[in-house]
Amino acid sequence: MSDFRQIDDNLYASPQITVADVATAKDLGVTLIVNNRPEDESPDQTPGSEIETAAKAAGIDYVAIPITHAGFGPGQVDAMRAAIDNSEGPILAYCRSGTRSTLLWALAEAKAGKNPSVIASKAAGGGYDISPIRQMVEMLSAGG
After folding, report:
1. What is the C-alpha separation between 75 and 31, in angstroms, rounded?
2. Does 1 have pLDDT greater than 70?
Protein backbone atom coordinates (compact mmCIF):
# COMPACT_ATOMS: atom_id res chain seq x y z
CA MET A 1 0.00 0.00 0.00
CA SER A 2 1.43 3.34 -1.00
CA ASP A 3 2.23 6.12 1.45
CA PHE A 4 2.91 8.93 -1.01
CA ARG A 5 3.22 12.26 0.78
CA GLN A 6 2.82 15.38 -1.30
CA ILE A 7 5.67 17.79 -0.54
CA ASP A 8 4.87 20.36 -3.23
CA ASP A 9 3.07 20.52 -6.56
CA ASN A 10 5.84 18.54 -8.25
CA LEU A 11 7.08 16.12 -5.60
CA TYR A 12 5.78 13.17 -3.67
CA ALA A 13 8.05 11.46 -1.13
CA SER A 14 7.47 7.91 -0.03
CA PRO A 15 8.83 5.04 1.97
CA GLN A 16 9.97 2.03 -0.07
CA ILE A 17 7.58 1.36 -2.94
CA THR A 18 6.59 -1.89 -4.61
CA VAL A 19 5.96 -2.73 -8.23
CA ALA A 20 2.21 -2.37 -7.54
CA ASP A 21 2.77 1.21 -6.30
CA VAL A 22 3.97 2.22 -9.76
CA ALA A 23 0.36 2.05 -11.00
CA THR A 24 -0.71 4.38 -8.17
CA ALA A 25 2.07 6.77 -9.16
CA LYS A 26 0.87 6.65 -12.76
CA ASP A 27 -2.69 7.46 -11.61
CA LEU A 28 -1.31 10.56 -9.83
CA GLY A 29 0.35 11.74 -13.02
CA VAL A 30 3.89 10.96 -11.88
CA THR A 31 6.31 11.17 -14.81
CA LEU A 32 9.54 10.34 -12.96
CA ILE A 33 10.40 7.96 -10.12
CA VAL A 34 13.60 8.74 -8.21
CA ASN A 35 15.05 5.87 -6.19
CA ASN A 36 17.15 7.27 -3.33
CA ARG A 37 17.71 3.89 -1.71
CA PRO A 38 20.97 1.99 -2.11
CA GLU A 39 20.53 -1.55 -3.40
CA ASP A 40 20.63 -4.30 -0.75
CA GLU A 41 20.09 -1.84 2.10
CA SER A 42 17.50 -4.22 3.51
CA PRO A 43 16.55 -7.78 2.60
CA ASP A 44 12.86 -6.84 2.28
CA GLN A 45 13.25 -4.00 -0.23
CA THR A 46 12.05 -4.29 -3.79
CA PRO A 47 15.11 -4.16 -6.07
CA GLY A 48 15.47 -0.94 -8.02
CA SER A 49 15.65 -2.89 -11.26
CA GLU A 50 12.11 -4.22 -10.67
CA ILE A 51 10.79 -0.72 -9.95
CA GLU A 52 12.59 0.60 -13.05
CA THR A 53 11.09 -2.13 -15.26
CA ALA A 54 7.58 -1.44 -13.95
CA ALA A 55 8.05 2.32 -14.31
CA LYS A 56 9.23 2.07 -17.90
CA ALA A 57 6.34 -0.29 -18.73
CA ALA A 58 3.98 2.37 -17.33
CA GLY A 59 5.63 5.14 -19.34
CA ILE A 60 7.31 6.66 -16.29
CA ASP A 61 10.96 7.70 -16.32
CA TYR A 62 13.24 6.30 -13.60
CA VAL A 63 16.53 7.40 -12.09
CA ALA A 64 18.54 6.08 -9.15
CA ILE A 65 20.30 8.61 -6.92
CA PRO A 66 21.24 6.45 -3.93
CA ILE A 67 21.79 8.12 -0.58
CA THR A 68 23.56 6.06 2.07
CA HIS A 69 23.49 6.83 5.77
CA ALA A 70 26.87 8.53 5.23
CA GLY A 71 25.01 11.60 4.00
CA PHE A 72 24.66 13.81 0.97
CA GLY A 73 27.28 14.93 -1.52
CA PRO A 74 27.30 17.64 -4.17
CA GLY A 75 26.90 15.08 -6.96
CA GLN A 76 23.68 13.76 -5.47
CA VAL A 77 22.30 17.27 -4.98
CA ASP A 78 23.19 18.15 -8.59
CA ALA A 79 21.61 14.93 -9.86
CA MET A 80 18.38 15.64 -7.96
CA ARG A 81 18.35 19.24 -9.21
CA ALA A 82 18.74 17.96 -12.78
CA ALA A 83 15.95 15.42 -12.24
CA ILE A 84 13.62 18.16 -10.99
CA ASP A 85 14.57 20.55 -13.78
CA ASN A 86 14.18 17.94 -16.52
CA SER A 87 10.98 16.34 -15.28
CA GLU A 88 7.88 16.99 -17.33
CA GLY A 89 5.49 16.37 -14.44
CA PRO A 90 5.25 15.25 -10.84
CA ILE A 91 8.08 13.23 -9.33
CA LEU A 92 7.86 10.38 -6.83
CA ALA A 93 11.06 10.05 -4.79
CA TYR A 94 11.45 7.15 -2.38
CA CYS A 95 13.86 5.64 0.12
CA ARG A 96 13.35 3.54 3.28
CA SER A 97 11.12 6.11 5.01
CA GLY A 98 10.94 9.05 2.60
CA THR A 99 13.21 11.17 4.79
CA ARG A 100 16.36 10.98 2.66
CA SER A 101 14.30 11.70 -0.45
CA THR A 102 12.77 14.77 1.19
CA LEU A 103 16.12 16.00 2.49
CA LEU A 104 17.73 15.60 -0.93
CA TRP A 105 14.81 17.49 -2.50
CA ALA A 106 15.28 20.25 0.10
CA LEU A 107 18.97 20.58 -0.75
CA ALA A 108 18.22 20.63 -4.49
CA GLU A 109 15.57 23.31 -4.00
CA ALA A 110 17.98 25.37 -1.89
CA LYS A 111 20.61 25.06 -4.60
CA ALA A 112 18.07 26.65 -6.95
CA GLY A 113 17.82 29.60 -4.55
CA LYS A 114 14.45 28.74 -3.03
CA ASN A 115 13.54 30.19 0.36
CA PRO A 116 14.68 27.91 3.23
CA SER A 117 11.59 28.66 5.32
CA VAL A 118 9.30 27.72 2.44
CA ILE A 119 11.31 24.54 1.84
CA ALA A 120 11.05 23.61 5.53
CA SER A 121 7.32 24.34 5.58
CA LYS A 122 6.64 22.20 2.52
CA ALA A 123 8.65 19.31 3.96
CA ALA A 124 6.81 19.62 7.29
CA GLY A 125 3.50 19.55 5.44
CA GLY A 126 4.46 16.09 4.22
CA GLY A 127 5.51 15.02 7.72
CA TYR A 128 9.27 15.46 7.28
CA ASP A 129 11.70 17.57 9.32
CA ILE A 130 14.66 19.18 7.54
CA SER A 131 16.28 20.53 10.73
CA PRO A 132 19.23 18.08 10.48
CA ILE A 133 20.26 19.79 7.22
CA ARG A 134 18.84 23.27 7.82
CA GLN A 135 22.29 24.91 7.89
CA MET A 136 23.18 23.29 4.55
CA VAL A 137 19.86 24.48 3.12
CA GLU A 138 20.56 28.04 4.31
CA MET A 139 24.06 27.95 2.82
CA LEU A 140 22.97 26.56 -0.55
CA SER A 141 20.05 28.96 -0.78
CA ALA A 142 22.44 31.87 -0.23
CA GLY A 143 24.57 30.66 -3.13
CA GLY A 144 27.18 28.91 -1.02
Report:
1. 22
2. no
Chain centroid to CA 10: how far? 11
CB neighbourhood size of 42 (10 A): 9
User: Residue 144: its pLDDT value, please?
Assistant: 67
What are phi and psi for residue 63, nearest 5 degrees?
-145, 145
CATH 3.90.190.10 for domain 5-104, yes or no, is: yes
User: Among residues 103, 117, 111, which one has the least CA distance to residue 13?
Assistant: 103
Q: What beta strand segments (E) does 1-144 contain?
A: 5-8, 11-14, 32-35, 61-64, 91-94
Residues 75-114 have pLDDT tens digits of 999 999 999 999 999 999 999 999 999 999 999 999 999 9
Residue 71's pLDDT is 86
Cβ contacts of residue 100 below 8 Å, gap of 6+?
A: 36, 37, 67
The length of the chain in residues reads 144
pTM: 0.95
- Enumerate residues 6+ apart whose C-beta is below 8 A from 117: none
Whether 22 contacts 54, CB under 8 Å:
yes
